[in-house]
């Protein structure tokens, strides 16, 4: 695989898109449902080390975007294919991997749907960006 054809700017924008989707998803859209499903309160969330959380999240999401870019690193893959493959990655792999863990952890279906839905949407958006921006 030729890494010289990867678009680093697209990878960075795809990485940053995870924060935008996360802000919407875990904020106005499903924030209350997520807090209920995890058993976390506003006070507990505010006690977290935000620099550590956001810093490591950026690194991990950059690795994910880079890996997805490697899978999509073919001239025949455009916006539609990138979006589809991003969706299949998020739903077919990540959603169900999280669901298996959640079953063993005895988490609720709400927990599975909120977190799995986030990753499905996130990978779909990343695939769209990476597929369109060659």
TrEMBL record:
Organism per entry: Halalkalibaculum roseum
Name the record gives this protein: DUF1761 domain-containing protein
Ranges annotated as spanning the membrane: 6-26, 53-72, 84-104, 111-133
Top-rank lineage group of the source organism: Bacteria
Keyword terms, alphabetized: Membrane, Transmembrane, Transmembrane helix
Pfam short name (any one): DUF1761
């Amino acid at each position: 695989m030729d890494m010289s054809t990867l678009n680093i700017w697209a990878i960075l924008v795809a990485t940053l898109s995870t924060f935008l989707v996360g802000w919407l998803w875990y904020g106005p859209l499903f924030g209350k449902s997520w807090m209920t499903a995890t058993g976390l309160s506003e006070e507990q969330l505010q006690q977290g080390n935000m620099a550590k959380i956001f810093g490591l999240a950026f690194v991990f999401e950059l690795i994910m975007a880079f890996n997805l870019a490697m899978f999509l690193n073919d001239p025949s893959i455009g916006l539609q294919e990138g979006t589809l493959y991003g969706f299949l990655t998020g739903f077919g792999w990540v959603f169900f991997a999280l669901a298996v863990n959640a079953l063993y952890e005895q988490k609720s279906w709400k927990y599975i749907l909120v977190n799995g839905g986030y990753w499905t949407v996130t990978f779909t958006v990343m695939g769209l960006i990476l597929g369109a921006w060659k």
